[in-house]
Amino acid sequence: IRKLEYLLKDAKDQGCDTVFTYGATQSNHAMETCTAARRCGMRPVLYLGAIVEPKPDDVRANLLLDRILGAEIHILASEGRSTKDTMKANEALFAQHREQLAKQGHKVYDIPIGGSTPRGAAGFAEAYIELLEQAADKGMTIDYLYTATGSGGTLAGLTAGKILSGDEHACTRGIIVGKKDPQTYGQGVADIANKILELAGDEPNATTEHFELYADYVGPGYEKPYREANDDIRYLARTEGIFTDPVYSGKAFHGMMDQIRKGMVPKGATVVYLHTGGATALFSEPEIIGDLRDDL
Question: 20, 34, 133, 164: which has the highest count of C-beta atoms within 10 A?
Answer without folding.
Answer: 34
